Amino acid sequence: MIQLGEPKQPRVLQQEDFLRRATWAVLVILSLVAVEGCTLRRRPLETPIISDSQQPDQDLFDRAMSDLEHSRYTIARLTLQTLINTYPDSEYVAKSKLMIADSWYREGGSSGLLQAEAEYRDFITFFPTMPEAAEAQMRVAMIHYREMEKPDRDPTHARRAEQEFQKLFLNYPDTPFAPLALQRLREVQEVLADGLFEVGRFYFIQGADGAAQPRLKELTERYPNFSQADTSLFLMGRSLERTGEKTAGEAAPYYARIVQDYPLSEHAEEAKKRLTALGAPIPSPDPVAVARMTYENTHGQRPGVLDKVRGAFHRRPNVAAAQGKVGLPTMTAQGPAQAGVLAGAPASGSASPGTGSTQTLVFDPVTTPASADPRSSGSPPQ
Questions:
Q1: How confident is the model at residue 336 (pLDDT cuts 50, 70, 90)?
Q2: Total structural domains in the chain?
Q3: Domain of 244: which CATH number?
């Protein structure tokens, strides 16, 4: 027997019923979302930036730093330049400019160091009050220090290094770089003085006193902390003596300086004899000079035969003779490499630029302990 059920609804009616129910469901969902949205807008934001994300400028800076540490200098510079151009008001702009200069400095080479110097100078110009300005000035000085050649070669980089280290020491005396800059300045002036000394001694041996005396005089006046300053004074005195009777009397002050300022010198006894022969008084040794030379003889270094042999195969000068020195280097401007008078006041005991006088040797045996070693102020640049 066939059972008859309810007649099936037409397909059109089924579709209309489905659409009606779906519409109601969508309206209910939208209503709930709207209510929740109103509630969220009224709730205060506790963390405007999600904790596990970074600002885009910081992300660029971190990526550039990673590239710089892995020696990807070109990529690092492009990333940093993008940061500077895209986010000119970012707090990382100053650091980015400094990192661009650092990338050129680390890359090295003549062109790289030249570009690094320009970038460091721009940083000092635009951000002179930032603590990193002293670091930028130190880098500029170290660029010329790294390019410095032997005393018998072109002294351009040595003179530029002298100028830049003087600027750092005078403009940023309280920075952590000041002690290292002071030692590097001693080393630079050791190279410059050695160049004058070798030329002056050559002319002295050849008997050309007219050519030897100007160089020896400049050496003795500008670089009293030179490792062979006592020998320079002695050669100057001997040169004046053999020039003639008119200049023989001018030799006495040079011999007197040996006895007074370099009392432990190997030329001290001969200088006393020359003073006696000239009828000049013999000064008493300065106790401070005695303490200074005792300290330097104990802590200093002298290049040995092996060092001299190795030096013949290196372009860089040997600055071992400047190690252990405690006298203040000269802070006056010198030569064509100087761009005018240095900014800032000269150090205590030094002469004003252009006066022609030199800085007084300063050593305090009380404040300079015997265990202190100036070589610990920093490692040589790579």
A1: very low
A2: 1
A3: 1.25.40.10
